[in-house]
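Re-run requested by the PI after the first attempt was lost when the workstation crashed. Everything re-entered from the original request form. Ligand of interest: 2-phosphoglycolic acid.
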Amino acid sequence: MRTPFVGGNWKMNTNKAAAVALASSVAEGVARGQIQASCEVAVFPPFVYLESVGAVLKESGSVVQLGAQDLYHQPDGAFTGEISAAMLKDLGVSVVLTGHSERRHVLGETDHVVNQKTRAALDAGLQVILCVGEKLEERERGETDAVNLRQTKIGLTGVSAEQMLRLTIAYEPVWAIGTGKTATPTDAQAAHRAIRSCLKDQYGPAVAEGVRIQYGGSVKGSNAGELFSQGDIDGGLIGGASLKADEFLAIVRAASSSQS
Ligand code: PGA
């Protein structure tokens, strides 16, 4: 039985006051809903608000985890503007995204860079959500599985079976992110199934069955239940809808009652 995992990726949104208010509403809603055992929840504020959001979560004794949207793979040095795994841990971050589609396709990160970041985060003891997903033209060319499997395989090069216990995959079709278009539950399930069988080839059945695979791409309170009821969908990575506490909490509730 995999515990569903829901992440709220705030991207480059909020300001300090809004970040603090959103974090406290989410923490309060999660505490009220008593979902601790049935769903894991994390929020991913912009780097500059990590400390303030972390303080809110800590003060309220929340189970909501503090996540970061990115990291740099080097431990320290002359890398202007970058943030290391150790710096994130210093602020109480426990989980970090790697390979988000905006980092790949807006900021030009290659599969190799995503792999370096994934390994650096895992080596530092962080949990990782490795994001994969095909672009519209790749889907139209029938390359959905090939792209996802390539991104998964290269992203995980050099990652040990033991480290896989701290890794989640987020399948996020690029054409569904922030567009209001969602993959059908059947299409999403098929992509998740293909990713899980790739994990099986790489790590064997026990690891493959234990790794959570989130769906991401225009998830809302109204479509979350149907997506999360699919056998290989273990929660979601939420962008736009994570900026409204009520909507995000509705998604968390859908995940917590879905237990795949
Ligand atoms: P969206 O973003 O929910 O706004 O589509 C998802 C994501 O980018 O993780």
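Saved to the shared folder this time. The beta strands are 5-9, 40-44, 65-68, 95-98, 127-132, 167-171, 212-216, 235-238.
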